Amino acid sequence: MKFIVPAAAALAFLTPGAFAQTTPAPAPAPAAATAKFSLDTPIEALVADPQAKAVLDADLPGVSTHPSYDMFKGMSLRAVQPMSNGKLTDEALKKVETDLAAIK
Fold first, then answer.
1. Residues whose CB is less than 8 angstroms from the CB of residue 80 and which lie 6 or more positions away in sequence, other chains included
2. Which UniProt keywords are listed (predicted)?
3. What angle do CA 80, 82, 85 make, to 5 degrees?
4. According to a count of CB atoms within 10 Å of the terminal CB, is the N or C end of the chain lower?
5. Could you give the domains of the chain?
């Protein structure tokens, strides 16, 4: 019993140091550094934003008026690409990605 009390006191004394944070947590990335839209954004979200819709209309005319729009609007451009029969080329998506990244 005499051994348990000093051991418990030593443990209580040492424990707070184990929980002390020695380095600050990294700051979150500034909002301006992250793109507002990407190729992974759902198409309907792009069409809902006037600037993003303008990019789609310029780079991929007809996407928002496509007869099957309701079927793919919840998908991203990246997800739709394999099903586009080659119409959404890597070059076209790269252009869209660059133009979407320019939106502030």
1. 43, 72, 88
2. Signal
3. 100
4. N
5. 32-101 (1.10.3910)
Report the amino acid identity of residue 34. T
- CA 70/CA 53 separation, integer angstroms: 16
CA nearest neighbour of 97 among 30, 32, 29, 35: 35
For the whole prediction, is pTM greater than 0.85?
A: no
pLDDT > 90: what percent of the chain? 64
Interval 1-46: pLDDT, tens:
555 555 555 545 555 555 555 667 666 655 445 679 999 999 999 9
d(CA 69, CA 62): 10
Other CB atoms within 10 A of residue 41 CB = 17
